[in-house]
Amino acid sequence: MRKPFLLAIPLAVVGLGYGAWSWWSTGPSDDPKLFANRVWVDRARKDDRDMVRYLVPLDVAGKRRGTTGASSKYRFAGEVFGWSRDGAKLVVDLPQEGRRIEVPVRTWACGATEAPPGFDLCLELGSGDAKARLYSRKGWRTPKGDDLPVNVPDPGEVSGCGPCAPAGLDALGLDGA
Questions:
Q1: How far is CA 77 from CA 14, 24, 25, in A?
Q2: How far is CA 171 from CA 20, 41, 80, 99, 100, in A?
Q3: Mind listing the pLDDT tens digit for each residue in 118-176?
Q4: Surface-to-core class of residue 107, CB atoms within 10 Å of its CB (0-12 exposed, 13-18 middle, 19+ buried)
Q5: How far apart are CA 11 and CA 17, in angstroms?
Q6: Could you report the per-residue pLDDT of 70-95, keeping only the tens digit for each?
Q7: pTM
Q8: Could you tell me which of 84, 80, 76 has the C-alpha nearest to residue 102?
Q9: Which of 5, 92, 127, 176 is the most exposed place for a label (fewest CB within 10 A)?
Q10: Cβ distance 108 to 30 under 8 Å?
């Protein structure tokens, strides 16, 4: 009677270990509803002159546009883009560069161990070594509905971007550097 009990202890330890490993290795699940109409930044600004990288994907009245770049309180540089998302894949068309980027994407509500202080949402673009992580706050939403003007032409309508050439995260200025 004692042998089955002694055998159950190692089996329970192995089972718990496997459960913890599988939970940890899969990471948080993706919540695509958190992606659009939100400001995403690579970190909090240190002072008024600190340049912070940003991504603002908009989905307004069925038009999916956005802007990406870097800015401080006094300077900004950016690029307008068109985008689409199919599950865990983000496709970004950059008309200025005539390029298309296809990257894995994941958004989730993240905890204090995953995000810098003051942020509660995480966005991960890319995979492996070519990965960038951006952060947002639940209150950083753009206006809803038709409150935003979206005058940007479709990337396919812009000369030179019909079938855009493939590019990497560096084209978005989000190469993880």
A1: 53, 38, 37
A2: 37, 16, 12, 8, 9
A3: 999 999 999 888 899 999 999 888 866 555 444 444 444 433 444 444 455 565 666 55
A4: buried
A5: 10
A6: 999 999 999 999 999 998 999 999 99
A7: 0.69
A8: 84
A9: 5
A10: yes
